[in-house]
Amino acid sequence: AIRSRLRNLKEEHATLLQKQETLQKTNDYLSTPEGQEEALREKYNVVKPGEGVVVITTPPGAENGDHTSRIAKWWDSLLHGLGVRK
């Protein structure tokens, strides 16, 4: 039982060390201007002056049947993969 507990503790220690390393890398990145900008954009949904929004729509008539172009299918797949579209 003691050997089993010791093995479990060693595994937990290794996991915690890996987590510490990951958190240190994240902290290092967030201390850079790029990391701070990314964090602000994600958390507060802000944009820089002059930036805009791109809206991708389906052309009229493309909603009926299999007339969807390869590009539209590619965009659909990409947006679905990013979790923007379900």
Keywords:
mainly alpha; elongated; 86 residues
Task: Describe it.
The termini are far apart. The chain has helices spanning 2-30, 33-44, 70-81. 62% of the residues lie in helices and 0% in strands. It is mostly helical. The chain contains three helices and no strands. The model has no long low-confidence stretch (mean pLDDT 86). The longest helix is centred in the N-terminal third of the chain and has 29 residues, at 2-30.
In brief:
By secondary structure, the protein is mainly alpha-helical. It contains three helices and no strands.
Query: Beta-strand level of the residues, as a percent range?
Result: under 5%
Helix fraction, binned, reads 55-70%
Order of helix and strand elements from N to C terminus: HHH
Largest sheet descriptor:
none
**Which segments are poorly predicted (pLDDT under 50) over 5 or more consecutive residues?**
none
Give the termini distance in whole angstroms: 49 Å
Structural class assignment: mainly alpha
Count of β-strands: 0
Number of discrete helical segments: 3
Computed Rg: 23 Å
Shape, please? Answer: elongated
How much is the average pLDDT?
A: 86
Give the topology, please:
Elements: H1 2-30, H2 33-44, H3 70-81
